[in-house]
Amino acid sequence: MDILHSFYCRKPWLDLSFNLKIAAKGKCQRCGTTVKDIKYLIGHHKIELTEENVNDPSIALNPVHIEIICLDCHNKEHRRFGGKKQVYIVYGSPLSGKNTAVREMMQYGDIVLDIDALWQAVTFQPAYIKPDNCKFNLFKLRDEMLDQIKTRYGNWYDAYIIGGYPEKYERERLAQMLGAEMIYCESTREECLTRLHNSGRPKAWENYINDWWDKFND
Question: What global pTM score does this model have?
Fold first, then answer.
């Protein structure tokens, strides 16, 4: 597994990054722009993370070396992950922080296939509602995008597929097909339910979260 990418889905980083964004009060520490939602802020390491220092908490988890910046400022940074196109499957429970983690891993010119976002774009329903009668069309669109990722079609750099994928067989099959790395976004059922209750989302999300954990196997 790519240890640089998996770092951003581990609980110590997720907790630290969230707390630093709250402390920044929605403001980019580089250009001064204020964003409406802290999920559009990025925890940027002033000292570039490498395989040699990513497990050194004095660098990787030291607030002194972390800058909270907006997406525009982040996009101006040079690409840290060069070379051939890489594909990453970022999976985990609803509200485990998958989207936030991908925003901090990706660079300008990467592509992201967020399965929940695709459902919402096609059906205009909340993320936890997936009408059965729309599956055929949704899966057709999903599979077309996955085929482009599989064949590395286009000029994008790296690709990220965001999804629940609670069942081990399903995600391993997809990873093998795409030649992808799998990255688990660490969380517990209790943490995700707590985030739900603090977020103001509808109570119906509870079933969405519990259903994922009931199916999860690693």
Answer: 0.75
